[in-house]
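Quick one: structure for this chain?
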Amino acid sequence: MPPADLILIVVCPIAIWALTLAFVLAILLAIDDGLKRLKKLHQIPCYRCRYYTGSLYLKCPVNPLSAGSEGALRCHDFEGPPASATHWAEPASRRPRPRLAKFFNR
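Got it. Here's what it folds into:
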């Protein structure tokens, strides 16, 4: 067996395994980075703030540029009790009733 064939027989499987391990490691590192970012985003206090409106157009009248983003982690205007999403909505009498409500409201 020529030495070139021997090198190919040894080097190719090692290279394939190295590439496979590098790929798996890259995926694991990406998952770890994603989980760290997700934990950080779950610390954003906007949705528990009294100034949060829940509107798509203006989420926070106090800090509209950083509302719902990582910039809101350092919000100095955050205030206590949770904002209720219904105080901006229409009154219950104006809301259309669901179609199946007649079956469940007996």
